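User: Mind token order:
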Amino acid sequence: MTVLRDANGFVQAIEQCRAALHGFVRGDHEPMRQMLSQREDVVLCNPWRPVAHGPTEVAQTLEEAASHFADGDIEFRTVEKHSAGDLGYVIEIEEFTAKLDGKAGSGALRVTMILRLEDGVWKVAHRHADPITAPQSPESTWRR
């Protein structure tokens, strides 16, 4: 999966990420791994694990997370997206149905991805996903 620099490259990269995430909810991490930067500052904030840093740790975290999914489908609702120069971001709500560890269900994540051009190809440098898709009380951040 490569997107060369052109007027629509950023939007095409987002579409490629979406296609890769369709594979992810079916248990295939590889297309999304290919979208990730291989630079040492790549970061993945997965909702199940602490922050993963660097290409090796990020790839391992991604593979482990995908291994829980099967038979999934996913839809995207864009909240905001913007690119300028060699950087861009997209904020989306990802709503998915899948088998998670063999049990059918559905879920939603609030996701922020920062993409950057690396040698003319858009790559994901940062992905943060969390389950906050509706307003929460201030007390929801307190540890009990």
The longest strand covers residues 69-84. The domain at 9-133 is CATH 3.10.450.50 (Nuclear Transport Factor 2; Chain: A,). Strands lie at 43-45, 52-53, 69-84, 87-100, 103-118, 121-130. The two ends are 44 Å apart (CA to CA).
